[in-house]
Amino acid sequence: MEGEGNETLHPSCSVSEPPYSEELLRSLDLPGKFLFAILTLMTLIANLVFIEEALYIYRKIPSSKRSIIIWVNAAAPVIATTSCIGMWIPRSTMFTDFTAAVFFAIVIHKFLLLMIKECGGQKLLLRRFENDRFKISTGPCCCCCLCLPRVRITRRTLFWLKLGTFQFAFLRPVLMFLSIVLWTNGIYTPYNLSPKGAAIWISCFVGVITIIALWPVGIMFQQVRTLLICKKIIPKFALYQFILILNHLQAAIINILAMQKVIPCAPPLSSSARGAYTTQQLLIMEMFLITLISRVVYRRRCDDLEPPECMAEEVGDNKQTPRIIMNGAIREDGLPRV
């Protein structure tokens, strides 16, 4: 029975390279073509929604935060676009994945800067938290190390936090370039995770610098989430986390299952190619939904562009209002009761 199973094995199942786009399109049946059309339409709508949102941000948001918010909003449409290109042209998957990873590495750094900008900038943040300390026992590095001391919030501390995210935005393109150079020489293969290959070592290094980059974002969020609740920082951080999990963790799990042949091959797609194909389709749908939700979260009315930084300011304004007690009733306008 084993020999008979090997004889009926399709040749594409033993090939790690994805098929050409013409071969993939010819193998699609009517439901497959309909799915391709729907996912492509989702990608187009996501990009149109982002363009409309970018125009709104450009007109309504102050210039100091304009580019940062556009960068953060662009994460989901860019990932959807690269996934759609990889779905149509399977052999471009390595390059589209690299492009999405590099862009999101920059978005991680931009999101840290966004939280600082929403606090009024670095100077105002330092003035507001001059007597506070950062809680560094947070994820993903040190969430279990509760004994770690708190660190004073100073200009030097903010520099190290920015450096933690900037190193990822800088090193990720460098590693992408190195991977492409090694791939041209046959040394780097994305689906070859043996110790003799370069992919496993580059992936481990990318994992380390990713964790280092996520740590400062978590530290800053823990510090400012109460202050920036009026600016919807919690749903913004949740969307950022969803993109991170779906684009990295979900893709990694599916790729591992594909390499272990848990996801069977479906000619002309091998197991690894089908895993990437499945990841791309899921990402298009997920990033489409995140793009629509981001439009609601980041869209603010003209009179809400600069909401109060804290409730203490509103309380202070209320205390300045004259209050006169007449016949046991409190009057705020100072006029006699008729």
Automatic annotation (TrEMBL):
Pfam families: Solute_trans_a. It is found in: Membrane. The chain crosses the membrane at residues 34-56, 68-89, 95-116, 159-183, 198-217, 237-258, 278-298. Its main location: membrane. Keywords: Membrane, Transmembrane, Transmembrane helix. It comes from Patagioenas fasciata monilis. It comes from the Eukaryota. InterPro entries: Ostalpha/TMEM184C (IPR005178). This is Organic solute transporter subunit alpha. GO terms for cellular component: membrane. It is a multi-pass membrane protein.
